[in-house]
Amino acid sequence: MDCCDCTPRVAIRSCNRDPCPVDGAWGPWSAFGACSRSCGGGEQIRTRSCNSPPVAGDGQPCQGPSAEIQACNDQGCPVDGQWGDWCCSWSECSATCGGGQRTRTRQCSNPAPANGGADCVGSGIEEEMCNTQPCPTDGGWSNWSDWSACNVNSCTCSRTRTCSSPAPENGGKPCMGDLVNRRACFVFCCLPDFARSLGLGGRLPGPFGGMGFGGMGGGRSLGGKSWMRC
Fold first, then answer.
1. Which of 38, 47, 63, 153 is the most buried (most CB within 10 A)?
2. pLDDT (tens digit, 9 = 90+) per residue, 126-177?
3. Residue 122 pLDDT more than 90?
4. Which residues in the chain are classed under CATH 2.20.100.10?
């Protein structure tokens, strides 16, 4: 064998076949999700993945959170109004009799409407009738009647009226004054009585002797008394 013809022999083999370490890196954040509440303060979340690249071999994992939370819809929620209790006592009645009205109130404050909430339904004022008893009516006189015929015994005539225009009602005051109005009068049969009242023994002196007054008109004054024809 020719020594000058010798070729060096080299042996090659693989080593360190384990994959090289790759540290993880975060991918992009996702969009925030829906808010957990429509008002009054909620939360929404977004996430990211440790995949750009992912961890390989003995590489280090991504550092930091994989999720992020933020507040959302922190505006106040609408509050619908509710009525409070009727306030205090009724107002003074508008009339003392014959039917009046009185009122009382309440406030839309339990709670009051807020943040676009609805107002209270219904009225804040309540009315009711009061003092419904009839009012007193004071009596009033009717017109006088015509004069009556002359009374032959008393030599008087009369006229009357009634407390009926209107009649007193419901505790109203009665009419004040007389129901009957009388005055002296004369007819033929009264003359002897009138003469006796003057101390003339039943006979009138002068031109009145034996005369009847039935045909006389207007008034006459005899013995200091006024005598009227009815």
1. 47
2. 999 999 999 999 999 999 999 999 988 888 999 999 999 999 999 999 999 9
3. yes
4. 80-135
Q: Are 175 and 143 in contact (CB under 8 A)?
A: no
Cα–Cα distance between 32 and 29 in angstroms, integer? 9
Instruction: Specify the CATH number of the domain 80-135.
Output: 2.20.100.10
